[in-house]
Amino acid sequence: MRVLLINPEFPSSFWSLQQSCELLGRKTLMPPLGLLTLAALLPGDWELRLADLNVRPLRPGDWDWAEFVMLSGMIVQREGLLSLIREAKQRRKIVVVGGPFATSVPQDILEAGADFLVQGEGETTIPLWLAAWRAGETHGVIEPAGRPEMTLSPAPRFDLLNLNDYILLGIQTSRGCPFNCEFCDIINLYGRKPRYKSPDQVLAEVETLFNLGWRREIFICDDNFIGNQTHARAILQKLIPWMQRHGEPFSFWTQVSANLGQNAGLVDLLTEANFGNVFIGVESPDEAVLAGNRKYQNLKNPLGQSLTNISVNGLGVVPSFIMGFDQETRGAGDRICAFVEQHHLPAVMLNLLQALPNTSLWDRLKQENRLTATGVSADMIDASFNFLPTRPAEEIAAEYLRTVDCLYEPTKYLARTYRYYLAMRPTRAAAGKSKSPGHGNQQDHLPFQARREDLVALLKLIWRQGIVAGYRRQFWRQLVGIYRQNPSRLAKYLAQCAMGENLFQIRASLLARAGRPRPGKKAPA
Q: For 65, 237, 284, 453, which has the most beta carbons within 10 A of its beta carbon?
């Protein structure tokens, strides 16, 4: 059988990283891990072709070649996913759809014309679908029979990728989250009891990427990598010597909860394994908002201090904030800005709240008759709600715009980045604490590893921020300051400056959408 695996386009968002892709000569951030895992679950003698529409458009030859069309997508990919289902049916293809959106909103998938709707996780449902297909069934809904153990999950088919298209690659070591935040759909999709791959499974996937020639960042896209700290330690204790033996070919990103800041030993293990950044759902500096959304893990310890404990010990923090919660009061954006400035947080993700289907928030708003017909949006440029907030929507949207303007203003962003990396401890190698030759955050030793594309990216960054930008003096003053005062962090500092290019573009787009003059431009007389 010939199977075309299609990943729909993502809308513009924080994670688009369009400017970073342009700097590095890459097409998009990362490939669709779900489809790569699906590919590994299909019979080995089937022919597979991946079409990631974030990398290239579909070609007529793709449709002509395919016998099956298999699609997956998240809720934010809704419009593209439904359009692709309809086009595939117009071309008389057998269409199989699964993934988070299909599991959460199955009716939309069926109405678009999918032949098979595969819900739940593929390790249990793909064998059921294969059995149905081989039995002669031509359509139907495949429902999960429980949640699979992650030890059953195969290594994704990374060989289907053109690695040069992506900034980072993803792996997954667990599914599920022990917390119960009202607005989050993770527990509905994957449960509150986390399930895990064995450390040897994880190491085998890392080894696969190494053998394919990958030498960049890997995103461990668990919902919470430290949800079970014993499991996280078991992986790290095997990953650290592997990284040492292989010359530290990768750096890692992952998602964690803020309680990591209360465990200095675990932070040390993460940095020793060459983890560079962690993404943390902060959501709000207001305790009433956190309590109202059951984000209790952010209330147990001083939140700002937890984030600082992580960053000063060598691990970059990317915090996420959300505006529009019911418990939120006027001035929420100002409080977010003050919190970010106080703790010198450089790259910050800022969202307007969206009610996701089947979450506790969704159920409550539905009961209160506050849901609207507007679909879920992840487009940062489209400042809208899909429910009726307790404050006037126009007031929240105006605050959101002011907060984006504040957080993503280039001079403020660069100033925070400078303070942030001045406060970060030197790398182990710089401090004379590396345990083996070359060990200790290898990628921080030089501004960029000696690769042509990195040199080109560095030159582009210097041109943009150090030559043509109105803040060029600040760029050079801070660059010299980092070089003199914390030189082993120069690479991370420059990477963070480059990350700012994405945020500056988001700010410019939002201001233009709101009818305000673009930064650096005068309003017409």
A: 284
End-to-end CA distance of the chain: 64
Residue in 156, 160, 177 with CA at minimum distance from that of residue 219:
156
- What phi, psi does 7 have (nearest 5°)? -105, 115
Largest CA distance in the chain: 72
Cβ contact 208:163 at 8 Å: no
Residue 404's pLDDT band, with cuts at 50, 70 and 90, is: very high
Pairing of strands 251-256, 275-283: parallel
| Spatial distance between the Cα atoms of 173 and 171, rounded to a whole number of angstroms | 7
The listed range with the strongest mean pLDDT (175-189, 258-272, 423-437) is 258-272
Q: How far apart are CA 174 and CA 198, in angstroms?
A: 9
Q: 49 near 199, Cβ under 8 Å?
A: no
Whole-angstrom distance, CA of residue 498 vs CA of residue 477: 16
Measure the CA–CA gap between 519 and 349, rounded to whole angstroms.
20
2-142 and 167-407, same CATH topology? no
**32 to 163, 168, 260, 457: CA distances (angstroms):** 12, 11, 28, 25
Which distant-in-sequence residues (6+ apart) come within 8 Å of 260 by Cβ? 226, 266, 267, 278, 280, 306, 310
Residue type, 38: L
The answer to whether 509 and 381 have CB atoms below 8 angstroms apart is yes
Q: Quick one: 167-407 is in which CATH superfamily? A: Aldolase class I (3.20.20.70)
Give residue 481's identity as a one-letter amino acid code.
Answer: G
> What's the pLDDT at 381?
52
Alpha-carbon gap, residue 56 to 58, rounded angstroms:
7
Compute the average pLDDT of residues 45-74.
96
Helix axes 332-342, 393-407, angle to 10 degrees: 20
Query: Which residues fall within 8 angstroms of residue 384, CB to CB, at 6 or more apart?
Result: 352, 374, 377, 393, 397
Contacts of 29 (CB under 8 A, 6+ apart): 15, 16, 17, 20, 21, 166, 167, 168
2-142, what's its fold? Rossmann fold (3.40.50)
Tell me: the pLDDT tens digits for 293-343? Answer: 999 999 999 999 999 999 999 999 999 999 999 999 999 999 999 999 999
The domain spans of the chain are 2-142, 167-407, 419-513
For residue 69, the cross-strand partners are 4, 95
pLDDT at residue number 439: 43
Helix (H, G, I), strand (E, B) or coil at 363: helix
| 357 neighbors 185 (Cβ within 8 angstroms) | yes
At 124, list the tokens: 């249990």
